[in-house]
Write a structure and sequence with these properties.
By secondary structure, this protein is mainly β. The protein has two helices and 40 strands.
Length: 466
C-alpha cells in the first residue's frame, strides 16, 4: 500500500494503483472503491482520484460526483508530478508530445485555466500551492522554468447601502454587491460600531442562490450579499462598513456609512372589525366593534347609525340597532393614540323585524269522520314574508305548508293550531275548532236492511220444509 490522507474523520489509503479505501480512525473499512488511482488529493469537500488519463471526483462516502478526461495525446504520470488540491481547485500536471501543461480544474471537473510550456524533453511540471499562490516548475532537456500564479487583485464592492435612518427595535439591513473575477469571494463581513465604540463583525449571507451552483462557485461574478445589524436604542448612531475577502486573502473595505436610530413612529391607523352576522333579527341587538393597533394603541372607536350623531364606544357602548327595517346602516372607524384615523367602514342592509306575523287558519269547521279536510293558511300575512307554516291537527298528528289535508278517524271536537314564522323568527298563532261527527244510516237504508233480513229468514224456512 502507498498514499495516505486524513480528512473529515476518514483515513484514505491508496492500494496498488487499483483501489481507494476509506477507513475509520479505528481501522474499520468504511468503503472500498475499485478505481484506477496513480495519485489522489483531498480538497475542501471532495476527493480527487487521478489515473493516467482521468480525474475521478468522489465524495467522502466514496460515491461518484463527476470526472475530467484528458485529451488523447496527454498523460498524467505520478513520478513526474503529483496533483495538488486547494479548497475547490485541483492543480493537475500532465505532459504531451514535447510539452508540459498545468490544468486548474474547478472541483476537479471544469477547466478554468491552463499553462503550457513547449520544449524538447518536456515532462509534467511539479506543482505546489501556498498562501493563495500556485508555483509550477517546468522541465525540458536544457532548462528549468519556475512560474508563479497568483491573484494580486482585490475584490470589487460594486455597491453597499442601507437606510440612513432606522426605527428603534428594528434591525438595520445592509446590502452589497460583490465579486472577485480571479479567485471568487471567500467571505463578506459587515463591520459596525455603535456611537463610536468598538467594531463588531458579522458574516453577510448570499441573498440569492441558484438551484445549481455556478461552475466556479459563487463570487466570481457579481452577487448580492445581505447582513443585519441588531436593533439599537433611539438616539444611537450606527457606523458600518463592508469587507470583502477573496479566496487567496486579498480584501477590500468599503467607505464608512452612518445610520441614525430614531424613535419608532406610528404612521399606521388602527384596524376595526365589526362582529355582525348578515341575517334578520327579531329583537334589538348590539354589533360589537373590535379595534387593534400594534404600536401606539387604540384611543377611541366611533360610529354612526343611520347617518345619526357620532357616538363613542367608550361613552355610548357598542352600536345598538333598534329601528325596524331591512336598510339600517352603520358607519364606524377608530383613531389611535398617535392621531392616525382609520378609513371609515360601512355596513348596509342591517335587518331588524320585531313584528309578529298574523296567522289565519280559516274558519271553524264541521266535518264527518273519514272526510278529507283541506286547511288553507294563505290568508296569513307578515311585513317581511312568511318563512314557514306548521299545523297541529289536535289529534296527535301535524303537517307543514300553506295548504294541507287531513282525515279525522274519530268523532269529537278538535283544536287545530296554525303557527307561522317570518324570516326573523317571529311567530304568529291562530287556532280554530273542528267538530267531527259520526255518520248514522238513513230510514231507507234501515228498510233495506229489514227487507234483506226477511228474505233470508224466508229462504231458510222454505229450505227446512223440503
Amino acid at each position: 500500500m502507498s498514499g495516505v490522507a486524513f480528512k473529515n474523520n476518514l483515513v484514505l489509503v491508496k492500494e496498488y494503483n487499483r483501489r481507494l479505501i476509506g477507513l475509520s480512525p479505528d481501522g474499520t473499512v468504511v468503503w472500498r472503491k475499485e478505481i484506477g488511482v496513480q495519485s489522489f488529493s483531498v480538497g475542501e469537500d471532495a476527493i480527487y482520484v487521478v489515473d493516467s488519463r482521468r480525474v475521478s471526483v468522489l465524495d467522502f462516502q466514496g460515491r461518484d460526483i463527476g470526472k475530467f478526461d484528458l485529451p488523447e495525446e496527454e498523460r498524467f504520470h505520478e513520478p513526474y508530478g503529483i496533483a495538488v488540491a486547494a479548497k475547490k481547485i485541483l492543480a493537475l500536471p500532465v505532459y504531451g508530445k514535447r510539452y508540459g501543461r498545468l490544468y486548474l480544474l474547478w472541483r476537479g471537473i471544469t477547466p478554468i485555466f491552463n499553462l503550457t510550456y513547449f520544449g524538447e524533453g518536456a515532462i509534467s511540471p511539479k506543482v505546489s500551492i501556498a498562501y493563495g499562490r500556485i508555483y509550477a516548475v517546468f522541465y525540458t532537456y536544457d532548462r528549468i522554468l519556475l512560474y508563479k500564479l497568483h491573484d494580486a487583485e482585490k475584490p470589487v464592492i460594486v455597491s453597499a447601502g442601507a437606510a440612513s435612518e432606522v426605527c428603534e427595535g428594528e434591525d438595520l439591513v445592509v446590502r452589497a454587491n460583490i465579486y472577485d473575477s480571479r479567485s471568487g469571494i471567500y467571505r463578506a463581513l459587515l463591520a459596525y460600531s455603535i456611537n463610536g465604540g468598538e467594531w463588531n463583525y458579522i458574516d453577510m449571507d448570499l441573498e440569492r442562490r441558484y438551484v445549481v451552483e455556478p461552475i466556479c462557485g459563487y463570487g466570481f461574478s457579481e452577487e448580492p450579499y445581505v447582513g443585519k445589524i441588531p436593533a439599537q436604542h433611539a438616539g444611537s448612531r450606527i457606523s458600518w462598513r463592508v469587507i470583502a475577502i477573496d479566496n487567496v486573502g486579498n480584501y477590500i473595505i468599503s467607505q464608512e456609512h452612518t445610520c441614525r436610530v430614531i424613535e419608532k413612529r406610528d404612521v399606521n391607523p388602527p384596524v376595526t372589525r365589526a362582529l355582525y352576522e348578515d341575517i334578520w333579527h327579531n329583537a334589538d341587538f348590539t354589533i360589537t366593534l373590535k379595534a387593534n393597533d400594534d404600536m401606539s394603541g387604540v384611543a377611541e372607536t366611533y360610529y354612526r347609525i343611520n347617518n345619526g350623531p357620532v357616538k363613542k364606544v367608550s361613552v355610548d357602548g357598542h352600536p345598538l340597532i333598534t329601528v325596524e327595517g331591512a336598510n339600517n346602516t352603520l358607519e364606524y372607524w377608530s383613531v389611535d393614540k398617535a392621531g392616525n384615523e382609520e378609513a371609515h367602514k360601512f355596513i348596509t342592509g342591517i335587518k331588524l323585524d320585531k313584528s309578529k306575523p298574523i296567522a289565519n287558519a280559516g274558519q271553524d269547521r264541521k266535518v264527518n269522520v273519514g272526510d278529507t279536510v283541506v286547511f288553507d293558511a294563505s290568508a296569513s300575512t307578515d311585513n317581511i314574508g312568511i318563512a314557514s307554516y306548521e299545523w297541529d291537527f289536535g289529534d296527535g298528528e301535524s303537517g307543514t305548508g300553506v295548504k294541507v289535508t287531513h282525515i279525522y278517524r274519530k268523532a269529537g271536537t278538535y283544536t287545530v293550531t296554525l303557527t307561522v314564522k317570518d324570516h326573523a323568527g317571529n311567530a304568529g298563532i291562530h287556532s280554530i275548532t273542528v267538530t267531527v261527527t259520526e255518520v248514522f244510516p238513513t230510514l231507507l237504508m234501515v228498510a233495506a236492511i229489514i227487507f234483506a233480513v226477511i228474505v233470508i229468514v224466508a229462504v231458510i224456512l222454505i229450505l227446512r220444509r223440503r
